[in-house]
Amino acid sequence: MAQKQILVVEDEEDIQELIKYNLNKEGYQVICAGSGEEGLQVTKTNYPDLLVLDLMLPEMNGLEVCRQLKSNSKTSHIPIVMLTAKGEESDIVLGLEMGADDYVTKPFSIQVFISRVRAVLRREKEFKINDSDILNFTGLQIHIGKHEVHVNEELINLTYTEFMILKFLAQRPGWVFTRGQIVDAVRGDGYAVTDRAIDFQIVGLRKKLGSTSDYIETVRGVGYRFAEV
Asked: Are strands 29-33 and 140-143 parallel, antiparallel or unpaired?
């Protein structure tokens, strides 16, 4: 099987070398860029399997790099893991809204970083879900076509919005979604859903999920995700 190629866009040489060394050890082919502009050009030339993108970059910041790549049909499919400094919650939200797949905050554990990279690459293989599909988790079953949810084999009654939120998150375990992204995913014609309403829907959904409510995780300052299993 061909090696997965990862582009690391990071201007701090020590961090760049640390990431490159450890990704190489994991069997990935790594190329590096030291600025946003260079990262953009290398991506368009090499089409890597994944981008590790620092947000604070010279010439062009990481958010602008992300925006340009995700708005280009030739590069929009390339998954992006953002590197951010602690406290940049607003930038994390913006990056996720633009289409980034995950983020790691500095300083970071290299083991955690590697696991995030693996998880994002794993996700790229999945999720052509049909209406007839059933999502099975320990204690929880979601029937997409029937709009039915069973907790420990007992049918529970969810509202349309609760079901759509659960379905959206459960189809992408581990992915972090902002409230805005969830709104866009569940909003129907003439159906009003706001960012604030999502929080109330999540509270109600967790109550109904009972012993399986821990599947819905809150990511502080960002949004929600379905726990990876």
From this structure: unpaired
Query: pTM (2 decimals)?
Result: 0.67
Q: How far is the C-alpha of 187 from the C-alpha of 102, rounded, in Å?
A: 23
Q: Name the DSSP class of 11.
A: S
CA–CA separation, 229 and 214 (whole Å): 12
Is residue 128 one of the residues assigned to a domain? no
Question: Pairing between strand 140-143 and 134-137?
Answer: antiparallel
The residue type of 117 is: V
**Quick one: which H or E segment has residue 90?**
helix 89-98
Reading the chain (229 residues) residue by residue, the pLDDT tens digits are 568 999 999 999 999 999 999 999 999 999 999 999 999 999 999 999 999 999 999 889 999 999 999 888 889 889 999 998 866 678 888 888 888 888 898 888 999 899 989 888 877 655 445 555 889 999 999 998 788 999 999 999 887 778 989 999 998 898 999 988 888 777 643 445 566 778 988 999 999 999 999 999 999 888 999 997 6
> Three-class SS of residue 228?
coil
Give the SS3 label for residue 6: strand
Domain boundary pick from 97, 123, 149 = 123
Q: What is the CATH number of the domain that holds 199?
A: 1.10.10.10
